[in-house]
Amino acid sequence: MKKRERTPKTYARITHPMVRDEKGGPLRRASWDEALDRAAEGLGAARGSFGMLSCARATNEMNYVAQKFTRVVMGTNNVDSCNRTCHAPSVAGLSAVFGSGGGTSSYGEVDHTDLILMWGSNARFAHPIFFQHVLRGIRNGARMYAVDPRRTSTAEWAESWLGLNVGTDIPLAHAVGREIIHAGLHNTSFIERATTGFEEYAAEVEPWTLAVAEKVTGVPAEAIRDLAHAYARAERAQLCWTLGITEHHNGTDNVRALINLSLLTGHVGRYGSGVQPLRGQNNVQGGGDMGAIPNRLPGFQDILEPAIRTKFETAWDTVIQPEYGMTLTQMFEAMETGELKAVYCIGENPAQSEADSEQAVERMKKLDCLVVQDIFLTATAELADVILPATAAWAETDGTTTNSERRVQRVRKAVEPPGEAREDIDIICDLAGRLGHPWKYADAESVWNELRSVSPDHYGMTYERLAEHQGIQWPCPDTDKIEPTYLHGRLWDEDPAKRGRLAPFGIVKHDPPVDLTDDQYPIRLTTGRRLDSYNTGVQTGSFASPLRRGEYVELCPEDAERYGVSVGEEVRISSRRGTVQAPVWVDPGLRPGLAFMTMHFPDEVDTNQLTIEANCPIAGTAEFKASAIRIEKLPVSGPASGLVSAPAVRS
Ligand SMILES: Nc1nc2c(c(=O)[nH]1)N[C@H]1C(S)=C(S)[C@@H](COP(=O)(O)OP(=O)(O)OC[C@H]3O[C@@H](n4cnc5c(=O)[nH]c(N)nc54)[C@H](O)[C@@H]3O)O[C@H]1N2
Ligand SMILES: Nc1nc2c(c(=O)[nH]1)N[C@H]1C(S)=C(S)[C@@H](COP(=O)(O)OP(=O)(O)OC[C@H]3O[C@@H](n4cnc5c(=O)[nH]c(N)nc54)[C@H](O)[C@@H]3O)O[C@H]1N2
Ligand SMILES: [Mo]
Fold first, then answer.
1. If we measure between CA atoms, which residue out of 374, 448, 453, 456 comes closest to residue 411?
2. What pLDDT, on the 0 to 100 scale, is given for residue 547?
3. pLDDT band at 394 (very low <50, low <70, confident <90, very high)
4. Which residues belong to any copy of the Molybdopterin dinucleotide-binding domain (predicted)?
5. Which of 1, 241, 360, 523 has the smallest CB count inside 10 Å?
6. Same domain, 93 and 165
7. Ligand 2 site, residue 121, Cβ cutoff 6 A
8. Which ligand is nearest to the CA of 80?
């Protein structure tokens, strides 16, 4: 068992560049010139076998420049980000049905809707701003349903909590669909007008009676029936989902199963009715929109379209590879085989955020050159050959970001960066120059204006208008108009010509989690977030923070009793991939056989040593939400050291 130091690590800002003289040797301080020359040499030697990890926390402008660097300077489409680990299935599912990967509604519509269905989403903890709209909606009379294996803080606000078994969302969604059809509550005029594949869908869901679904999902038949009737009868309904749906080996199928329900009832393309994947990072939507994904150029334009490629080739005076690049997941596989030799990692911490993290670290060690550009000295930075200190997008730079409702908003520099830190865009352009592409952008606005010139969806958003309107949602093709707050109103048009491409039902099947529970690993572990910490903890994990609470493995009272453990006692937790040790917390919101851990404290308890790298074949997202584990009480136990207080499970 890898036993880690349980002393919390304090992350300090990186204030000067660093280089390593030999693999495995120590890092030492370097000048910017030396560090950039080293980075240019390492990356330049790997043109064609290069991958870029771009930062979902940084600005649109920085993501635009990062993907342009990948495509123009390095000649490949291998650019991706942590979107792959969270909402790539949402983007894939929404694009397949509606032709674009964004959520269809706006936050404000939630204030005025009649039903809010939170599916696999703990928005009370993870999307607090959006959750204010949920609370406003409830205050205005909306009913809320929550579908989550745990009775979360979000579920506490719901009229009904459907506590399903992990990985049984398709059976539940299919049973809801079947019940709607059998009760005659489906919207036949919308189905005929706007969709394809209904007959096939109806046949697919037919075996999922309430009784069969109850058996598989663990949700009482009456609760499923109630949800089906409430959703179908609501005048307006918002279906919101997050990682409980996407972080599965069949995440895209899960997304399709939920979108089916909106097509069945006509709850899409109208004010107050829609589907919303609540995105994770402040700018993960924008990163994808800017083309920092392997299959799309800026403005979500398909690389495989020759006319689109030609447009960008002219604008950038380059040749764009006519093929999709590698996803983050594929890049890690290619590190293993040696196909990928150099990585430029900007503001990501995959050494701790990837599923089966020990394997991810071993793979990164095989690279000829790893350049890390971050604001903190992360576990990933500790593997790097060159470290470049960046400014934080938040408060230290100018630019724009795009939130889950597709709203582009300005961010402005308010404070000076520490030490020698330089702006992300500045560093990338300096590197591009050293590799033969002397790019000059006077400021973030000139990057934005270049993006506007190649992305019709963003063309109408000048910095001036963004400031005037306090942010504008895409699409915004005109400089004198604002489009409706919701997408796909076209599907309701009387005129078939204006309706455009119809929305296909997804024919998807139940496929249980890959990591099966058995006698050896009898507990289902699901992982996720708490209100008081952020992702791998780099930005929130400092011991100095009064918010810090440390890791626990959360069990239901019955399981804690069965193992003879109480709050604070240490246990050993093993999966088929690794073993960690953590204290116990008892949460009555869990059900027997289900455990919960976060990903927030990997320096003390590396949860991702337990998780499985079983990926969705369409989106490449790993099954973070379903591992099989065993829990063993340790012979000598006592209150864990270094833990300041219990987690706010239900604050
Ligand atoms: N405080 C805080 N906020 C954050 C973050 C953070 O680290 N801390 N991270 C940000 C990021 S990057 C993201 S992507 C978002 C994520 O936001 P969320 O997706 O809301 O967060 P999670 O806690 O990962 O997972 C959501 C829920 O999925 C449930 N779940 C697990 N398995 C299943 C299943 O099989 N079916 C269903 N229906 N539900 C299941 C879990 O019990 C959990 O309550 O949060 C963002 N906001
Ligand atoms: N077990 C488990 N694992 C998970 C998940 C889960 O639910 N369970 N969720 C997955 C999800 S949804 C996600 S999104 C990933 C997150 O995975 P990562 O993105 O790898 O993790 P973060 O901790 O968010 O890392 C953010 C990094 O960006 C840096 N940074 C912040 N701002 C800036 C900036 O302006 N410029 C630069 N250059 N750097 C900056 C921070 O210092 C930090 O190092 O984790 C995934 N891993
Ligand atoms: Mo995320």
1. 448
2. 66
3. confident
4. 524-626
5. 1
6. yes
7. no
8. 2
Q: Is 150 in the pocket of ligand 1 (CB under 6 A)?
A: yes
Q: Is 17 exposed, middle or buried (CB count within 10 Å of its CB: 0-12, 13-18, 19+)?
A: buried
Mean pLDDT of the chain: 94
Residues 357 and 240 in one domain: no
State residue 549's pLDDT score.
78
What's the rounded Cα separation, in Å, for the pair 102 and 83?
13
Task: Confirm if 599 and 354 have CB atoms less than 8 A apart.
Answer: no
What pLDDT score does 1 carry? Answer: 46
Cβ of residue 151 lying under 6 Å from some atom of ligand 1: no
647: confidence class by pLDDT, cuts 50, 70, 90: very low
**Is the domain of 327 the same as that of 265?**
no
The model's pLDDT over 523-545, given as tens digits with 9 standing for 90+, comes to 999 999 999 899 999 988 766 66
CA of 635 to the centre of ligand 1 (A): 33
Does the reported pTM lie above 0.70?
yes
Burial class (CB within 10 angstroms; exposed 0-12, middle 13-18, buried 19+) of 442: exposed
- Cα end-to-end distance, the chain, whole Å: 34
Atom index in ligand 2 nearest the CA of residue 346 equals 38
| Ligand 1 contact, 471 CB (< 6 A) | no
Last residue of a domain, one of 261, 278, 295: 278
Structural domain containing residue 574? 523-633
pLDDT in tens, 326-343: 999 999 999 999 999 999
Ligand 2 and 87: CB distance under 6 A: no
Atom of ligand 2 nearest to the CA of 82: 14
d(CA 58, CA 77): 20
Ligand that comes closest to the CA of residue 242: 1
Instruction: Give me the number of domains the chain comprises.
Output: 3
458 phi and psi angles, rounded to 5 deg: -110, -5
Distance 279 CA to ligand 3 centre (A): 7
Q: Whose CA is nearest to atom 45 of ligand 2?
A: 353
Q: Rounded mean pLDDT of 50-63? A: 97
Q: Is residue 10 part of a domain?
A: no
